[in-house]
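Obj.: predict assembly geometry.
Materials: sequence records (below).
Method: joint structure prediction, all chains together.
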Amino acid sequence: MEKKETTMETDNSIGATTFSDQIPTTFSLSSIFDMSCEGEKGSLGIMDLLGIQDFTPSIFDLLQQPSTLLPPSPPPPLPPTSSLPESSEVLNLPATPNSSSISSSSTEAANDEQTKAVEEEEQEKTKKQLKPKKKNQKRQREPRFAFMTKSEVDHLEDGYRWRKYGQKAVKNSPFPRSYYRCTSATCGVKKRVERSSDDPSIVVTTYEGQHTHPSPVMPRGSSTGISSDSGSYGAAFAMPMQLTQSHFQQQQQQQQPHFHNLPPLNFNSNISSSPTFVQERRFCTSAASFLRDHGLLQDVVPSDMMIKKE
DNA sequence: CGTGTTTGACCCGCGC
DNA sequence: GCGCGGGTCAAACACG
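Observations (raw structure tokens):
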């Protein structure tokens, strides 16, 4: 296709370079939970799943009642998780995000070799039948996590480098959905970014997959950065933290030597005093309920931030 | 030149 | 089986 003058000035094309100028003055992360229940056909209902109508009226009111941030419906029933790769979608159980025993990580590692073999077989088969660029293999679903972020920018800086590989119009929404992929060659993490049609100030970011590498953006993040054992959970959970830190970096125009990828739910006291972080803590509260079964969590999350969701 | 974005085409899964 | 819509690909392009 002949590319004409690219006059696309979509507000979602904000790059990392311009992001710093558009840091939201108010950043309110509202909720996070498993999006694995999101069906292929139902992805359009993200807002519904997220209960954004309930969210919209007053995030702060809701923040006063963390329990209201929980998904309106209980987590989807877990199909028997055999070693089949298709089960990856249901692996986003409340696995320990900050421990190496994360189930999705180990399971995925175990599945990886099996799935690779299967994939190669299928690819070889289908290569002859289909265009090389297309794969006939069953699409595998990584664990997904969605954030609702009150922000003016769509693409939130989360410490990783992303390459946009697609943009689609969303049905019943004036805002497009953008597809990003981690630029690391070995990392297949993707994320989707879309704006709520109900409340344009709300950005829904959905992470899919696990980072297999530390954050490349953070200068000293390798030691405590998000590694394979935290994966997407880490990315997902660290994102608001990083944004918060980035936010304050922008505000204070100074470098913080500890600025790096934080492990999930590793609350850094240096930023915990900020008003924004209070919101982040609320966010993490919601996340805590999400991860309620994991021992290490109690070590880093104050008990009053934990929610029993039964 | 390397990296990231744009965008139309294509594939695939699902509902009817 | 067909159509719709979500998701992905990849060439062309933009930019530093």
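Conclusions so far: The first helix of chain A runs from residue 16 to 19.
To do: check interface contacts against the pulldown list.
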